[in-house]
Every structure is written in structure tokens, then in C-alpha cells.
User: Which sequence fits this backbone?
């Protein structure tokens, strides 16, 4: 059994702490947000993550997992402390390390024993050195620390499974004893271990996220070409992605990437590359393609409706992806902002993210509990997040409920023909042929329908 503390009980910290306790370790989870700690102590979790609540409760009851609002009490017994606080984007696009610095100081003044400090937060290269320097400067006792980089690759929505069955575990460390400790801690997961120096481990995380974001922007750019030339990007992905060197995951056209990681991590890597004198040419383009994807979608709806003022749009999906209530940098929310700015009214539905979205929009958006209610008397429906429950919508009911006939399938989850036979106008992303001709013939002329100027068949 290892004695662990995890500082920062967000998506990553709570999953990490809970899963480590599930593996038989004694884990203290610490957060500056006292209300969050109260919520956890009372047997609830502060966000939606499938399967997590059951694990938290089980390990709390077994006495292996507890929650603290202050660092000093939480790290008292810890031989290893994970830092899992947020690292948001600064105004200049770089990574804001304010919370990491604060935690390093708090740990330093409370440390009473030699300890391994693990950076789990996504942090720029050299942050390992920074944390070590802060601890050396502020420690009260003559204790030794070994700073390890252990970036996290879990995905919200499947975070528990991702933690328990990772593709790989990356350990960046300078000290062999620290490596051995981490090897032992993760041994029950039986996953491939990539052991590197600290800076390389920090770089691995940014490389992985930037590459996946690039794949998404790449296929969105291709989708825009598909629309113009009358090709279907879904078939293009199937054809190109079946090449093992390319693959189909993170290769779907849509509204672009969002969430708390990709936008800020790509931006941070742009900043790191500029700072070290090797400025990125690709990554700024990845970000700008991503931003354009939202304005393109708003424009398509605008054109299809003959203008946004006075129109009502039903938006299905608010979370940045399915199976989470996380709305940080959600493309859906940006789309809604665009629709509102254009003069439309918005009715919105999401299976779990309405509470978070309501806190953001207040009464600027009307929220409903049933997805069909979001179609009632609206001019257009947009499917902005590909939740499973939207995949089998009854288009006959939709057509009857709507006062207009435009459906934007912003995640390309429908067969365009099944909407068309129900009298609905289909707007997809990059579906120049099957979205508009319905007969497999392609012509650049059909592409003009994509922007909504054509009439429904
Ligand atoms: N969310 C993901 O899917 C994901 C995946 C991989 C990596 N990451 C990275 O992990 C890190 C954490 O992300 P997250 O999504 O869990 O963040 P989060 O915002 O959900 O949680 C961060 C937590 O840290 C707490 N905190 C902030 N300052 C603190 C302090 N001084 N002392 C104690 N607690 C403090 C906050 O109250 C919050 O509960 C980030 O660097 C992120 O980039 C996130």
C-alpha cells in the first residue's frame, strides 16, 4: 500500500485519487474549494463522470479515500504527492501556472518528510524544474523532494476506464528511486511504461494533444473542400482513414475541437515553440481552422434561414463532447453565442450539462428537459454534441414539431436521405454529395445548397 496525496480534485485529480485508492492505496484528496470538499464528504461528486461516483463511495467507505480542504492536513502521511490542479490559458495564450506555483509553495511549507512530487497537470517544459526550485526555496524542514512528470491522457466521459487501462504510462524522472516508486505504484495496471527525463515527458503530453487537434482541424479543412467540390467527407474519412498509418479516430469533421485541454494545450505549445526560438507554423493554423469552423456553421444556418434575426434555433447538446457535463470551450456554446449575436433565439437541451450552461447563459437561452421540446416551433435544429440519445431521433416527429425545416447535423451522425424523406433540409459538414444530391452524382453546383441557398427537395 502506498500513501498518496492528490492536490486538485477536478476531473483528473478525483479520477486519479479514486482509482489509486481502488488499487489498494491510501489516498488523501485535497482542494482549495471547500465547497467541493464538502460535496465529496457528503457522498456526492461535483461533476458528471460515468462510473466515478460508485468508486468514490466504495473507497470512502473502505477508509482508503478521504478529502481535505487544506494541504497541510492532507499531505501529513503522504510519501508521494500528485499535483492535478488546473493549468488554464493565460491572456497571451501561454499556460497559466499560477495554481501549480501556489500548490508547490503550500506543499513546501508543510513538508515533514522526503517526498516524491508528481506533476499530473499538463504543464510546459521546465515546470518540473520550477516546482523543484519553489519547494527548495520555501521548505521549512531539511527534506528532499524528487519531482516526477506523469502526464495524464484520460478522456472525460471514459476517464475511469482510461485510467485503469491506459495505452501507456509516461514517467519523466531524474532519479532511479522515483522511477521505481512510480513503477510499483502503477504495477497493478499492467500497462506499458515509457520512462524518460522530465522535460521529455512534459513534451510528450503537448505533442499528443497537439497532434490530435491537428487531425481534427485537418479533416475539417478537407470537409470544407468536400463541400465545394461535391464530395462526402464521411466517405473520404472511411477511405483515407482505413490506411493504418492514418486511422479514423479523431478524424471526423464537425464543429471542431473544444474542452479544457486541446485549445489551451495547442495554444501553450505555440507559446513554448516561440519562446524557445522554434516558432510553430502548423499550430497557429490548427487553431484558426478550429475557430473558423464555428463561424462557418453559424453562417450556414444564417443562409439556410434567410437571416437569423427573429428566428428560433433548437440546439441539441451543450457539453464539449458526449458523456460529460464539461462545457469548457465547448463548440456548442460558441455556436450559440454566434446565433444569439446574429439575432436568433435559442432553445437548448443536453442530457447532463444544462446546469453548467445555465450558469453561463442565464436567461439568454431557454433550456428544456426533453430533446423534442427543443424542436418545438423552431425554425432550425442543430445537433451540436453527438450524444447517443440524439442518434435515433424520430424525424417524423421533428418535422411535425418544427415550424421550419432546417436540420444542421453538425456532427455528421445522420443519413441525409432519412431527413430528406421526412421533408427536412439537411445541412451536414463536408457532405457535398450525399447531403444534397441524394443520387450519388457530384457537381460543384450542388455545393451551393450546402450553404443553404438551395431549396429542399
Ligand atoms: N480534464 C481532462 O480531461 C484532462 C485530461 C488530461 C490532462 N488534464 C490536465 O489536468 C489538469 C487538471 O485538469 P482538470 O480538468 O482536472 O481541472 P479542473 O479545473 O477540473 O480541476 C482543477 C482543481 O484544482 C483545484 N485547485 C486550483 N488551485 C488550487 C490550489 N491552489 N490548491 C488546491 N486545489 C486547487 C480547483 O479548485 C479544481 O477543483 C490540467 O492541467 C489539465 O490540462 C485534464
Assistant:
Amino acid at each position: 500500500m502506498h500513501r498518496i496525496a492528490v492536490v486538485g480534485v477536478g476531473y483528473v485529480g478525483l479520477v486519479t485519487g479514486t482509482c489509486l485508492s481502488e488499487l489498494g492505496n491510501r489516498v488523501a484528496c485535497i482542494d482549495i474549494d471547500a465547497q467541493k470538499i464538502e460535496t465529496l464528504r457528503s457522498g456526492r461528486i461535483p461533476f458528471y463522470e460515468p462510473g466515478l461516483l460508485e468508486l468514490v463511495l466504495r473507497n470512502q467507505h473502505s477508509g482508503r479515500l478521504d478529502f481535505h480542504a487544506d494541504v497541510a492536513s492532507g499531505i501529513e502521511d503522504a510519501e508521494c504527492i500528485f499535483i492535478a490542479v488546473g493549468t488554464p490559458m493565460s491572456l497571451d495564450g501561454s499556460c497559466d501556472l499560477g495554481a501549480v506555483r501556489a500548490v508547490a509553495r503550500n506543499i513546501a511549507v508543510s513538508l515533514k518528510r522526503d517526498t516524491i512530487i508528481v506533476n499530473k497537470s499538463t504543464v510546459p517544459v521546465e515546470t518540473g524544474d520550477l516546482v523543484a526550485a519553489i519547494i527548495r526555496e520555501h521548505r521549512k524542514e531539511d527534506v528532499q523532494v524528487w519531482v516526477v512528470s506523469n502526464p495524464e491522457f484520460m478522456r472525460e466521459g471514459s476517464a475511469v476506464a482510461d485510467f485503469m487501462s491506459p495505452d501507456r504510462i509516461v514517467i519523466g524522472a531524474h532519479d532511479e528511486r522515483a522511477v521505481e516508486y512510480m513503477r510499483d505504484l502503477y504495477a497493478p495496471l499492467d500497462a506499458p511504461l515509457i520512462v524518460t527525463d522530465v522535460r521529455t515527458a512534459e513534451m510528450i503530453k503537448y505533442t499528443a494533444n497537439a497532434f490530435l487537434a491537428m487531425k481534427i482541424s485537418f479533416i475539417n479543412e478537407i470537409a470544407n473542400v468536400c463541400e465545394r467540390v461535391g464530395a462526402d467527407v464521411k466517405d473520404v474519412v472511411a477511405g483515407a482513414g482505413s490506411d493504418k498509418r492514418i486511422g479514423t479516430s479523431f478524424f471526423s469533421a464537425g464543429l471542431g475541437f473544444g474542452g479544457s485541454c486541446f485549445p489551451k494545450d495547442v495554444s501553450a505549445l505555440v507559446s513554448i515553440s516561440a519562446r524557445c526560438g522554434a516558432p510553430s507554423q502548423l499550430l497557429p493554423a490548427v487553431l484558426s481552422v478550429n475557430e473558423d469552423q464555428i463561424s462557418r456553421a453559424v453562417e450556414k444556418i444564417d443562409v439556410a434561414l434567410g437571416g437569423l434575426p427573429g428566428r428560433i434555433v433548437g440546439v441539441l447538446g451543450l457539453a464539449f463532447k458526449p458523456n460529460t457535463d464539461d462545457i469548457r470551450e465547448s463548440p456548442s456554446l460558441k455556436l450559440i453565442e454566434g446565433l444569439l449575436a446574429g439575432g436568433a433565439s435559442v432553445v437548448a437541451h443536453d442530457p447532463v450539462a444544462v446546469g453548467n450552461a445555465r450558469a453561463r447563459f442565464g436567461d439568454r437561452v431557454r433550456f428544456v428537459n426533453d430533446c423534442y421540446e427543443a424542436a418545438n416551433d423552431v425554425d432550425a435544429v442543430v445537433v451540436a454534441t453527438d450524444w447517443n440519445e440524439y442518434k435515433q431521433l424520430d424525424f417524423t416527429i421533428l418535422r411535425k414539431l418544427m415550424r421550419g425545416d432546417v436540420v444542421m447535423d453538425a456532427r455528421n451522425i445522420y443519413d441525409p436521405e432519412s431527413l430528406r424523406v421526412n421533408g427536412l433540409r439537411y445541412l451536414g459538414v463536408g457532405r457535398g454529395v450525399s447531403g444534397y444530391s441524394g443520387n450519388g452524382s457530384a457537381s460543384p453546383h450542388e455545393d451551393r445548397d450546402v450553404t443553404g441557398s438551395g431549396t429542399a427537395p
Q: What stands out?
A: The first helix runs from residue 11 to 22.
